[in-house]
Amino acid sequence: xxxxxTVLSLLLGLMIAPVLAGQQTLPAQNQAALAADVFAVVNxxxxxxxxxxxxxxxxxxxxxxxxxxxxxxxxxxxxxxxQRLIDQLLMRTAVRERAIVAVPGQVKxxxxxxxxxxxxxxxxxxxxxxxxxxxLPQVEEQSQFEQLEAQVRDVTAPSEAVVxxxxxxxxxxxxxxxxxxxxxxxxxxxxxxxxxxxxxAMDEAARLIKRLQQGGDFAEMxxxxxxxxxxxxxxxxxxxxxxxLAEEAQQVLDKMMPGEVSSAIRLLKGVAVFRVDERVSPLxxxxxxxxxxxxxxxxxxxxxxxxxxxxSERRSRADVQLRDPSLLAISDE
Length: 333
Description:
The chain is an alpha+beta fold and about 325 residues long. The protein has ten helices and nine strands.
């Protein structure tokens, strides 16, 4: 059964695959002490230890190189897998309460997509009918889960007043950040070059900086000396904002005034000399220009909030027992 669960999970490529093999109802009188083969009991329904172990191993192979999880991440990943399995049972209950049924066309398309990905593999050809029979209820349930999530996440179209209030409460979302117009001279050095080559580039940069301070033409020097493509344009990089340049360069540029030339800065591809040509202050865009984006962001945030609160409420009401209590400390985020 473990091999079957593993194969099905890999076929689906989902950690949401149902725990059909590990779920049963535990009589109330037996819930106090969990047996060695029971991983968890959620509202009286059992998740077997085998199911947890299987999904843990599948998850490792899907997320981590060669399935080798760093020791520092092991505990958090075990909690994540436990959370997914528990949430799945909670979502299954919600599906029943809302009488949600699978969408036939969606199920058909998903099965066809899975078969298209795997039909050339020998194990699929040999066991096709068995795989499809096992996959069908899983794909049907996935369709139900997707409909549940869509229902919960649904947000009523906000009025213009609501969108305006969101815009006013979150100005940072609609502000064009500070921009700098910058010119560059890059004296190219291969990252693996010898120390002497790097020192030679630093010395050359110092000579260029001295000439610039004495009134030399930055654009002309960039055309003659820069290995960067911007050299053809006199070193002009255009307007840049934080995050576009290397951190070493950004830290220097943040302190510079227009017209100022930097010291020599060692970067990955060589030694750089910058000039700040213009500094443009941050600008809050008018509401009329960003109203569609503000509406989309509001709807997205409300959708996330709806789902987060829905699952948080389900978790808070659930009666969950785990054989390993340390896995119960799971975030609602």
